Prior knowledge:
Arc Repressor Mutant, subunit A; Tetracycline Repressor, domain 2; 2 domains; 11 helices
Amino acid sequence: MSEGRGAPTRGAERADAARNRRAVLQATERLLAEGAGSGGTGGVGGEHVSLDRVAALAGVGKGTVFRRFGSRAGLFAALLEERSRALRAAVAEGPPPLGPGAPPRERLLAFLDGLGAIAEGNALLLTAHEQACADDKFDDPSYQFWHRHLAALLAEAGHPPEDADFLAHTVLAVFDGALVRRLTTPDEPRRFTRSVQTLATTLLDGA
């Protein structure tokens, strides 16, 4: 049976879904910035962001936001995934030292340089995601990807697998939004990243 003349094509539906996703994420980003600018810990933590507000600002129904993202935590996680997509691709299949082929120490330091830059540029988003996720952050696909990568590099450097697993969690634990904000200043914009790399070097030397 042929489609009705007025029925949208699958391509048009996919394009609409992509536009809606962009609009929702842009609205989330704007509300997060507004909340931070208003002062107070609630704004910094992303309490200014709600599904209702995001839907209204994006020009879509609340049901659309809920079906696609599920919650505020889902919105923040999607934004973080957008910001880290290029790094994930580079880690998985890019040239060394980020991608495969370099010694574990070089790959680890290059990876932490990239992840640190994302954290330093998105500290408020990181805090909002942490507060919205609470203990569920360990189930976040991005967290699991970074953890597997770190654990594999630490194991390749000589740590037993069970130690590498724990140490990978330890390194990721310092990617705390409040800590990133505290260490990131105009005079030292990359202090946080350098400190994390120092921590990682200490762990590598202890393998």
